[in-house]
Amino acid sequence: MRRMLVAVLVLCALPAFANDRMRISVFFSNPQFTHSDAAGTDWTGGVGAGFEYRWTPQWSGEVAIASEQHVEVLQFVSLPPLTDGTIRNEFRSHPIDFVARRHLFRNGRWQPYAGGGARWVEGPSTPNTQFQSRASLQAVAGIDVYLTDRLAFRADARRLLRSDTVPYDRNSKFSFGLIWQLGQ
After folding, report:
1. What letter would DSSP give residue 127?
2. How many other C-beta atoms lie within 10 A of the C-beta of residue 113?
3. What is the DSSP string of 29-60?
4. Going by fewer Cβ within 10 Å, which terminus of the chain is more open, N or C?
5. In this predicted model, what pLDDT tens digit does every residue of 141-183 receive, in sequence order?
6. Helix or strand or coil: residue 9?
7. What angle do CA 30, 179, 155 make, to 5 degrees?
């Protein structure tokens, strides 16, 4: 929680140092709606914010932090009337992404990019399971669509370069959001 507070404070202080190479983003990641008779209806996914700096017109780097909601439903065999055979485990994780991007075309409103970086997420402590923190390399591809000279819509897909998967950090990710370019 302290890390998230520090990240929010840094993002709030950025306008004081704003120039035309800095951008702030807000995004939704991995939105999913699920329904089951045992667990009910759930929305899982995350919201986050990022800070991007353009070294050149083609290259940029971004640090992003998110808060992701997860629901894990564990099924087991039980005899009535003890339980209904499920354990519902709800928890949050707070991943931090470090990504470098190569923007392929800088002319026009549609600007696709590809890149790579690292992801770190602290394993959440839950009553029924104990997850471990993990780090992973990741590949990123997406597009920025400029709505105005300073405001853009972003959609991207990420693939963690790990062979394992855990409930709080899936290997394939999708996010979309808005980017605001700071400065004059």
Report:
1. S
2. 20
3. EEEEEEEETTTEEEEEEEEEEEEEEESSSSEE
4. C
5. 999 999 998 899 999 999 998 877 666 777 888 999 999 988 6
6. helix
7. 35
2-181 has which CATH code?
2.40.160.20
Q: CA 30, 33, 35 angle in degrees (round to 5)?
A: 145
pLDDT value at position 16?
Answer: 46
Domain ranges of the chain: 2-181
The answer for 38, left when phi > 0, alpha when psi is -120 to 50, beta otherwise, is alpha
Q: What is the largest CA-CA distance in the chain?
A: 67
List, in order, residues 6 or more apart from 97 with CB less than 8 Å away: 50, 62, 63, 64, 65, 66, 117, 118, 119, 138, 158
Secondary structure element (H or E) that encloses residue 138, with its range: strand 134-146
Q: Residue with structure tokens 């819509």? A: 153
pTM: 0.74
